[in-house]
Amino acid sequence: MDEYKIKSIEEGLTKIEFPEFDKISSEAPVFYNPHMELNRDLSILAIQVFQKQEEREINICDLFGGSGIRGVRYKNEIDGVGNVCINDISEVANHYERHNIALNNLEDIEVHQHDASMFLRMKRGEFDVIDIDPFGTPSPFLDSAGYCARRKSLLCVTATDTSALCGTYKEPCIRKYNAKPYKSEYCHETGIRILAGFVALTLAKYAKCIEVKMSHSTEHYMRLYIYVKKGSKRTDESLENMGYISHCKNCLHRQTSLGLASSIEDTCPVCGEKLIHAGPLWLGDIQDSEFIKKMIEEVEYKKINTEKQALKLLNSCLTEADAPATFYDVHKICKSLKISAPKLDLIFDEIEKEGFKAVKTHYSPIGIKTDASIKDIQNVLLKLCEDE
Ligand SMILES: C[S@@+](CC[C@H](N)C(=O)[O-])C[C@H]1O[C@@H](n2cnc3c(N)ncnc32)[C@H](O)[C@@H]1O
Ligand SMILES: [Zn+2]
Fold it and tell me: Which of 1, 135, 234, 370 is most buried by its number of CB atoms within 10 A?
């Protein structure tokens, strides 16, 4: 390992070293992506909230260790952590994982070199937290995670194959997530719901059900924090959250239909055009306001470099926690009405004056989550335009 020039970085309270590389790529001797610091900082907050709720020592699995930065940070920066296992299939990664454990003077962290699925199969019931942060899709590893997960545990899942989940490419999404995507203005939310739905269906095989506590789509990735619980009856009930989103390309109306095998309307009730369906996907909550409030409180007790960005995102997710699924893109509606877009704040005020809810969303700066229909929103926009 002496052939490499070493780079040193600091995240939170932790120092990490790994071989220097020119380009962030899976080809680097050991993978490290500085753009994922926010993801790691939020993970520290979410796992700490989970640990406090459980009121016991928790064991953590960092399934795709890379430099070991997650496992090492989790042990170093989260209170109440017992044993941490860092796994990676690469020997070079294992070397730097051990190096970084020693660099931070940590005990009770093991390093393993296995294929991720094999590792989870060997360690059934040993972890309270499983962090899945692979290259691309987490899909192939979720079955083993379902098998391994404790009856009350936290699953942290990253997906970087957003083009599949968002529907830029339909076939890979069908192959990997067994769901049809649709590339609408709210496709990042649809993507998160497809991933959550796939986790729910995969874990259901092991009579385990999910509660999504927090989720976000940021830059090139999506991340979900999911509580896993055990029980066939509650799993059956939780699968009632599965369903479809149907979208009208002509008038921008959209609607949801609960149920995996119930019939779905094919014609737009507003304009009569054919509806396009996405799913099956998770129509249950994808943000939990109580959990997010606790993550926000936790920021005060942690040293995280991305504090400002983390708080902005968490507050945005908190605002949209109880809003309906999907959102409207103001510019897209204005374009279809052939009017210029009024000021955003005015639109929110006016929709609320009409008796509807209207909140911003972290997915888009020009997105509105509302229970108003497309017709109601169009009327508001036309009225504001006339008033100008
Ligand atoms: C995206 S990187 C992990 C980044 C790390 N979690 C972080 O936050 O910096 C993915 C890692 O998974 C490892 N890997 C790839 N395929 C694997 C497999 N089938 N089982 C276990 N590890 C694997 C790679 O060697 C790589 O280090
Ligand atoms: Zn329509």
Answer: 370
Asked if the bond preceding 172 is cis, omega within 30° of 0, the reply is: no
Return the SS3 of 242: strand
Report which DSSP code applies to 312: H
Q: Which domains does the chain have, with CATH numbers?
A: 6-319 (3.40.50.150), 328-387 (3.30.56.70)
Ligand in nearest proximity to the CA of 267? 2
Distance 99 CA to ligand 1 centre (A): 17
**In what helix (H) or strand (E) does residue 257 lie, and over which residues does it extend?**
strand 254-258
Q: What DSSP designation does 74 have?
A: H
The token duo for 303 is 């040293």
Q: Bin 17: left if φ > 0, else alpha if -120 < ψ < 50, else beta.
A: beta
Residue nearest to atom 12 of ligand 1 (CA): 64
- CA-33 nearest atom, ligand 1: 9
CA separation for the pair 256, 329 (Å, rounded): 18
Q: At 247, phi and psi to the nearest 5?
A: -130, 140
Closest ligand to C-alpha of residue 252 is 2
Residue pLDDT, tens place only, 318-345: 999 999 999 999 999 999 999 999 999 9
Does pLDDT of 261 surpass 90? no
Residues near ligand 1 (Cβ within 6 A): 31-33, 36, 40, 64, 66-67, 69-70, 87-90, 93, 115-116, 133-135
What whole-number percentage of the chain has pLDDT above 70? Answer: 99
Atom in ligand 1 nearest the alpha carbon of residue 140: 19
For ligand 1, what atom is nearest to the CA of residue 66? 27
Instruction: Retrieve residue 139's tokens.
Output: 């899909």
**Residue nearest atom 17 in ligand 1 by C-alpha distance:** 89
Taking only the tens place, the pLDDT of each residue in 31-77 is 999 999 999 999 999 999 999 999 999 999 999 999 999 999 999 99
Ligand nearest to the CA of 247: 2
What is the chain's mean pLDDT, rounded? Answer: 97
